[in-house]
Specification:
This protein is α/β, with parallel strands linked by helices. Helix content is 19%, strand content 16%. Bound molecules: 2-acetamido-2-deoxy-beta-D-glucopyranose (6 copies).
């Protein structure tokens, strides 16, 4: 197997050097990247992490709390929600080397009013991104709009703004969305009509988003919609359909 596999891989790498250099991190390199990332946002509560901190080279990050790897050894899920993490995620953070990540949950931590780095958009495989209630501040980077695989997207409860781009631009390619939660984000634009075409949507929370203009009533007819919260958008107009 190895004889066949290796030359093929190298050949592919010659053809697509950049992609390969990003995705061919070994299991150990991914664990090291994860370890370095965690070190920048360490706070307390690190019992489960201690075995990795004591020795990076002989521990497997896939066995640590909140981390799931694929059977090929890539880190694919990180759930460190409510883990008393505190710090800043820099644009050069090793988190962005984990390009196989499908799920990232950092909700309920404290990122000390820092910005969400635009490099988050390198994590193209993300299906689920939850940065809610984590003390992020500033503009939502427009690059997040490239995360077209997202089915769950939650930036609620941060002092975030979406002033440079509108909601329409941000969401245009996230056609697989099931959960859209941006409550408290200063969006200040209208609700895109195309949301009525995102047929997987189950839950929309755009409470207190400074939304404007008329709410597209077609959204009420989304087949899977179970939860819709548009409270406290004082410049939003529209009326409920008859049920
Ligand atoms: C870490 O693991 C390496 C390789 O297994 C070993 O040589 C080294 O002594 C260990 N360091 C500590 C601090 O345990
Ligand atoms: C993230 O973690 C929180 C707390 O455990 C949980 O309530 C939330 O549902 C998780 N988010 C996603 C998208 O799974
Ligand atoms: C990453 O960026 C921060 C701030 O911009 C800087 O202090 C740090 O030295 C950088 N780290 C590396 C490894 O380049
Ligand atoms: C959305 O997808 C189209 C077609 O793939 C692409 O041209 C466009 O740049 C994407 N827009 C964003 C904001 O990612
Ligand atoms: C929704 O999809 C239909 C059918 O594909 C299309 O005709 C319509 O323009 C779309 N609406 C929006 C607002 O994108
Ligand atoms: C509503 O619109 C008015 C006029 O455009 C504006 O002055 C006001 O700040 C808006 N209010 C909110 C809550 O967005």
């Amino acid at each position: 197997m190895a004889f066949i596999f290796l030359p093929t891989t190298s050949l592919l790498c010659l053809l697509v050097v950049l992609t390969c250099s990003a995705s061919l991190l070994s299991h150990d390199e991914e664990c090291l990247a994860l370890f370095e990332f965690k070190q920048t946002i360490l706070h307390q509560k690190l019992d489960s992490w201690r075995k990795i901190r004591s020795n990076t080279s002989d521990s497997d990050c896939c066995l640590s709390d909140g981390v799931v790897c694929s059977n090929t050894g890539h880190v694919i899920r990180i759930d460190w929600s409510g883990s008393s993490l505190s710090g800043i995620i820099n644009s050069n953070s090793t988190l962005f080397k984990l390009v196989h990540l499908q799920m990232l949950n950092l909700s309920m931590n404290n990122f000390v009013e820092s910005q969400i780095p635009s490099e988050i958009a390198r994590l193209k495989q993300l299906r689920s991104l939850d940065l809610s209630y984590s003390g992020f501040n500033g503009q939502i980077p427009y690059e997040i709009s490239h995360l077209a695989q997202l089915s769950s997207f939650d930036l609620s409860g941060n002092s975030l703004k979406l002033r440079s781009i509108g909601l329409e631009y941000l969401l245009q390619n996230m056609t697989r969305l099931e959960n859209l939660h941006l409550s408290g984000v200063d969006v200040s634009s209208s609700v895109p009509h195309f949301l009525a075409n995102f047929s997987s949507l189950r839950s929309i929370n755009l409470r207190e988003c400074q939304l404007q203009d008329e709410f597209p009533s077609a959204i009420f007819h989304l087949p899977k919609l179970k939860y819709l919260n548009m409270r406290n958008n004082f410049n939003l107009t529209g009326s409920l359909p008859e049920f």
